[in-house]
């Protein structure tokens, strides 16, 4: 089943196209990487997928449901923005409870908070104020906030930005367990190509609002005609 579908997704700013008739599908359990140079249209696409910006044309479907005509469908996804949006005066645990309450979760909220703190290995710091957290911990609690309503889809915008190797490893491990162990579906943007090589089942290279290449890493290598190609070489040849 296709979990995410973008159909002819288009965004114009003041008549100038930033994303042009984007079509793609993401099957269940896949990690899907959305790559592009600065200004390619990744953030614009992510905003249309998270309900922050209305498309000029086209549709975003989660599990076949149009997130712009069926707003409840947005709850099928959890979103982690590139800059963590957190209340620094709360503890990590309070932040998770707060987001849970916003989603109207009451019955099993405490259990869900404990589960997330455990999964993200944040139990030790759960009762410390967020303003005392490192960036890695803030990113992890931001991921936790996106999971509180138990989404089937994770939308991750530059989620490893500024993280040290250990925190990066932990976030990568979490992404893999969400997709490969729990059967979730991940759509991520990043400029770190080694992360894509390691995690992604499917890769899209976007340039000036249009898809230049798409496929698995092996398929992209075949398209380029050289099996030994690194993603960096493939990317640079696609966007030049
Ligand atoms: N609010 C806006 N008003 C007008 N133009 C915009 C707006 N937001 C983005 N753009 C333009 O749309 C195009 C795509 O921008 P977008 O931010 O989506 O790219 P991006 O791939 O996310 O880039 P980056 O990797 O630098 O974050 C760019 O030409 C940008 O200048």
From TrEMBL:
Q: Which InterPro entries match?
A: AAA+_ATPase (IPR003593), ABC_transporter-like_ATP-bd (IPR003439), ABC_transporter-like_CS (IPR017871), ABC_Transporter_VariousFunc (IPR051782), P-loop_NTPase (IPR027417)
Q: Which domain of life is it from?
A: Bacteria
Q: Which organism is it from?
A: Paenibacillus lentus
Asked whether the UniProt record includes Magnesium among its keywords, one would answer no
Alphabetically ordered keywords of this record:
ATP-binding, Nucleotide-binding, Transport
Give a Pfam family name: ABC_tran
PROSITE patterns, sorted: ABC_TRANSPORTER_1 (PS00211), ABC_TRANSPORTER_2 (PS50893)
Domain ABC transporter residue range list:
4-233
Q: Which GO terms describe its molecular function?
A: ATP binding; ATP hydrolysis activity
Residues in a coiled coil are none
Q: Does the keyword Transport apply?
A: yes
Question: What name goes with this protein?
Answer: ABC transporter ATP-binding protein
């Amino acid at each position: 089943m296709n979990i995410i579908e973008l159909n002819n997704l288009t965004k114009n700013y003041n008549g100038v196209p930033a994303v042009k008739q984007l079509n793609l599908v993401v099957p269940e359990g896949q990690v899907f990487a959305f790559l592009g140079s600065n200004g390619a249209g990744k953030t614009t696409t992510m905003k249309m997928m998270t309900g922050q910006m209305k498309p000029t044309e086209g549709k975003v479907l989660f599990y076949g449901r149009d997130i712009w005509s069926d707003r409840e469908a947005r709850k099928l996804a959890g979103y982690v923005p590139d800059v963590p949006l957190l209340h620094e005066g709360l503890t990590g645990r309070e932040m998770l409870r707060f987001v849970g309450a916003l989603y109207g979760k009451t019955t099993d909220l405490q259990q869900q908070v404990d589960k997330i703190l455990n999964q993200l290995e944040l139990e030790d710091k759960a009762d410390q104020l967020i303003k005392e957290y490192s960036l890695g911990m803030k990113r992890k609690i931001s991921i936790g906030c996106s999971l509180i309503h138990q989404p089937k889809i994770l939308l991750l915008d530059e989620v490893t930005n500024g993280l040290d190797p250990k925190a990066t490893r932990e976030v990568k491990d979490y992404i893999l367990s969400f997709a490969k162990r729990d059967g979730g579906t991940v759509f991520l943007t990043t400029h770190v190509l080694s992360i894509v090589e390691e995690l992604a089942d499917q890769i899209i290279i976007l340039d000036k609002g249009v898809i230049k290449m798409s496929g698995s890493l092996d398929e992209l290598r075949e398209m380029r005609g050289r099996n030994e190609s690194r993603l960096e070489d493939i990317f640079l040849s696609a966007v030049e």
